[in-house]
Design a protein that fits this description.
The chain is mainly β. It has 1 helix and 11 strands. A hairpin with a 2-residue loop joins strand 2 (32-35) and strand 3 (38-47).
Amino acid sequence: MSSTQDADFSSTSADASLTTPTQASSLAKGDHILIQSQPCKIVSKATSAPGKHGHAKISFVALSLLNSKKYTDICPAHHIVQVPIVTRKEFLVIDITIEGFLSLFDIHNPEVTKDDIRAPGVETEVGQRLSKLWVKATEGGEGEVWAVVLGTMGMEVVDAVKEGVQE
């Protein structure tokens, strides 16, 4: 009798992994990479010529998707790096709470609202745009506000906001 017959696999999921392995040389500016356990978007990539040991090195400069901090990493071009799995979804903003959380409506799943995503701070470009569009939509009655939410590594953040027009 094997030990797997007694194992319970009922709680596994097809998306159990939060990252995928990828060769460093195949990544480009705009791709995602995991640096110091932070999911990041690559803003700069430089490749050095092979050194005396025959391996080219790649230098990455990237911004964290979660807090916009700058991270750098240098690794051999043939090295396998971890790339975070990132999802992007748009939600209609229906409220901004006093505590600073967004109340979001998913038009593809109208039974559920999302109330656990913190609004970006007003010191950020996204936060300033959200404030401006929210005032315009609520006080002026002009249009709708849509939030673009990135999900990665079990966390979600507002990456962008945009204006929509009521139909």
